[in-house]
Design a protein that fits this description.
Strand content: 15-25%
Distance between the termini: 36 Å
Largest sheet: 6 strands, antiparallel
Bound molecules: flavin mononucleotide
Shape: globular
CATH class: Alpha Beta
CATH architecture: 4-Layer Sandwich
Structural class: alpha+beta
CATH topology: Chorismate synthase, AroC fold
Number of helices: 8
Number of strands: 19
Length: about 375
Amino acid sequence: MTGNSFGKIFTITTCGESHGGAVAAIVDGCPSGLSISVQDIQQELDRRRPGQSALTTPRDEKDKIHLLAGVFKGKTMGTPILLLAYNEDMRPEDYETLKNIYRPSHADYTYIKKYGMRDFRGSGRASARETLARVAAGAIAKKYLKEKLNIEIVSYVEQVGDISTTIDDTAVTRALIESNAVRCPDQSIAKEMIERITQIKDQGDSIGGVIKGVIRNVPSGLGEPVFDKLSADLGKAILSINAVKGFEIGSGFGCAAMRGSQHNDAFILKNGAITTETNHAGGILGGISTGQDIYFRVAFKPVSTIQQAQNTVTQDDRAIKLKVEGRHDPCVLPRAVPVVDAMSALVMMDHYLRHRAKAGDCHE
Ligand SMILES: Cc1cc2nc3c(=O)[nH]c(=O)nc-3n(C[C@H](O)[C@H](O)[C@H](O)COP(=O)(O)O)c2cc1C
């Protein structure tokens, strides 16, 4: 109802503002018996945390996670799990001058229109700090999916501005993604991306890009017709991430220029099993997983907070020129990769449990 919870069986509720006391997630519906440690969660959070490289905001948060309920002797109990990280490196004074100003393309204006007030310190709940809770919860789903079903989620940065990689997804590994600060598995393109982000940052500007999401070893049969199609739920999950402006699955918008004879994924037999020659569907047909890899693309905007003068208006209707100082990401893509992973894991986990409740084991 209030938009702070997600999922039907494997559910998460997040709370916390950017410069409040803490950010937290309550995860409910996780089956008992999954081995989970603070380290399993922390390693995902370290990929998202601010201050991790010269390409991200210098806000230096350690994002140390506290696992406060639902786990006993290293195993989930089937009871709600509480995950919490305190905010430590806050500088609310950075936002004092912004408290009556609508930053262009940020959420200040709409929060005032909706609530009549807002926590102006670091954008409150509109801040990407909220994604910490998603990544923490997603780490549990990700672990379950890998251990019990061998489902693997590997999102990576495919494009920054007009620089993009055409790397073959099957060659992409977590180690390659993590081998550079921009999280692009193509090393020479990653270097170009890093140079571009550094240049843009020096100009006090920001830049957007594309993350490619890849989900491997998906069993067929996940997804609920008709409103909760797997593709629809992935779309909602991904579009709920801050700064996302576009989502396309499989052939996406490219399919509009194709003919059926080019686009159809012909069924074939391979080693006695049914598969398809191509995968324009992106691993989902009729809202249900085919058993092929699921892949999608996510467009992120250049973040709105830039250090250049812009026209705007104050809460008391004065037109002003605004130049924002303070700590911001010049490009959110490197930090958004674990967020895309987490939201993908939450959707897959929820749909696996929904399918299990209805149809027993998935059909291989
Ligand atoms: C990982 C991540 C980091 C972000 N960092 C910043 C930032 O430093 N400054 C900023 O203005 N917006 C940042 N954003 C985007 C804002 O949170 C977002 O643009 C804002 O809440 C308005 O929402 P919308 O763009 O989804 O409409 C970030 C987003 C993500 C996913």
